Amino acid sequence: MKVMVCGGAGYIGSHTVVELIASGHAVVVVDSHANSSPKALERVERITGEKVENACVDVRDAAALAGVFSRHDFDAVIHFAALKSVGESWQKPLTYFDNNISGTIVLMQEMARAGVGKFVFSSSATVYGAPDFSPIPESAALRTASPYGRTKLIAEELIEELSHVDPGFKAAVLRYFNPVGAHQSGLIGEDPSGTPNNLMPYICQVAVGRRPYLQIFGNDYPTRDGTGVRDYVHVVDLARAHVRAVEHLGKGGETFTVNLGTGCGHSVLEVVAAFERVSGRQVPLSYAPRRAGDVAEYFASPELARRLLGWKAEYDLDRMCEDAWRWQSMSPDGYV
Ligand code: NAD
Ligand code: WQD
User: Fold this and answer.
1) Which of the four, 40, 93, 177, 199, has the lowest number of CB atoms within 10 Å?
2) Which domains does the chain have, with CATH numbers?
3) Neighbouring residues of 179: CB distance < 8 A, sequence distance ≥ 6
4) How far apart are CA 29 and CA 49, in angstroms?
5) Whole-number Cα distances in Å, 292 to 82, 295, 315
6) Is the dihedral of CA 14, 20, 22, 25 positive or negative?
7) Spacing, Cα 191 to ligand 2 middle (Å)
8) pLDDT digit string (tens) for 163-203?
């Protein structure tokens, strides 16, 4: 298939471009580089041995997008292009609404104009808010806990509505749990700008000496060791799920929504212990109060993804830490 990958220079996008190419698909990346370096795509080219066409375009720019559609005959679009910081979305809600919701609408409009009907969308477990129980099935109640979460929920609703109204529009809505890890080569990985919000990049930066210690947000949760429990999923497993999803649509599959997680929860202390074990580095830590908006525990039911796509996460927590650490130690300052 020929696939437009919007946000393809970002963390999950770059890994997905690698897996698409490895599966024999043709890729064109569309990325404004609002939160990524074009160097990520040079690294993708080193891994795959193939040239990757990259259009530096904002998905809200309809004319520029139309230009890309006019130069290629796409079978599908994968849409990663969004702002993703929950904390920042409280400071700049309108920026998030505009980038993530308007961006998705403009992109779907240009797809319709170009006659491209297959769409893979990056959603998030954040649409479950504080879930009532785990493992979480896709049928669980949806609620948002932040302006960022609202953008994902609204985009999901628009996509669902459009697939009801337009018989030519078929979408895969993928709800990621906690993506971590990096490509086995160590050439690409997560490179947050500023202070990392998420656990694994923070641990990596402590281990490599960029930050003195990890703060653990809360050790009084009703979990097995008092720290928060999440469903960490290797980014390469996640990338492969996108290949399955786009191929499923390519074979005439109907619109669907699935969770992408392992089905296992790990606490913050378990992640730190695994990281120390595989890296051989100490991760100094201190305990801090709970972070506003955090929930004690959640993990996915990944059953539907297995049944529908034949997808199951292969890599365990040790492998996630090992690959994250290889990336961080090979590129201590990210894509500089
Ligand atoms: P990322 O920031 O690394 O990648 C997003 C990419 O999109 C970046 O390259 C950025 O430059 C680009 N982009 C942003 N807005 C754009 C716009 N208007 N036009 C063109 N390009 C634009 O983030 P990621 O971690 O790879 O996340 C990818 C997607 O997955 C996002 O939609 C995110 O909301 C979603 N998601 C991420 C996580 C996570 O923890 N990483 C979890 C659940 C869902
Ligand atoms: C994991 C655990 C923290 C940092 C976020 C978004 C979610 C989705 C995935 C996009 C929690 C603890 C963290 C630190 C810590 N993103 N922690 N010290 O919050 O589960 O999910 O990313 O869609 O929407 O909310 O991930 O990695 O921030 O936190 O103790 O410095 O690590 O409290 O228990 P989270 P996270």
Assistant:
1) 93
2) 2-184+231-262 (3.40.50.720)
3) 11, 12, 232, 233, 234, 235, 238
4) 16
5) 23, 9, 30
6) negative
7) 16
8) 999 999 999 999 999 999 999 999 999 999 999 999 999 99
Residue 150 CA to residue 129 CA, distance in Å, equals 10
Residues 6+ positions from 292 with CB-CB distance below 8 Å: none
Cα 69 to averaged position of ligand 1 atoms, centre (Å): 21
**Token output for 88:** 């920042």
**Contacts with 114 (C-beta within 8 Å, 6 or more apart), sequence order:** 66, 69, 70, 74
Task: Report the distance separating Cα 66 and Cα 110, nearest Å.
Answer: 6
State which residues of the chain have pLDDT below 50: none
**Cβ atoms 195, 334 nearer than 8 A:** no
d(CA 28, CA 13): 11
CA of 4 to the centre of ligand 2 (A): 29
- Cβ of 200: how many Cβ atoms within 10 Å? 24
**Residues 6 or more apart in contact with residue 252 via CB below 8 angstroms:** none
**Catalytic one among 11, 96, 128, 148?**
148
Residues 6+ apart with CB under 8 A from 241: 174, 260, 305, 309, 311
The residues near 43 (Cβ < 8 Å, ≥ 6 apart) are 14, 187, 188, 335
Closest ligand 2 atom to Cα of 271: 32
148 noted as active-site residue: yes
Pairing outcome for strands 285-288 and 214-217: parallel
pLDDT in tens, 112-145: 999 999 999 999 999 999 999 999 999 999 998 8
Tokens describing residue 315: 């890599």
What does the alpha-carbon distance between residue 257 and residue 146 come to, in Å, rounded to a whole number?
21
pLDDT of residue 269: 98
Beta bridge partner(s), residue 123: 175
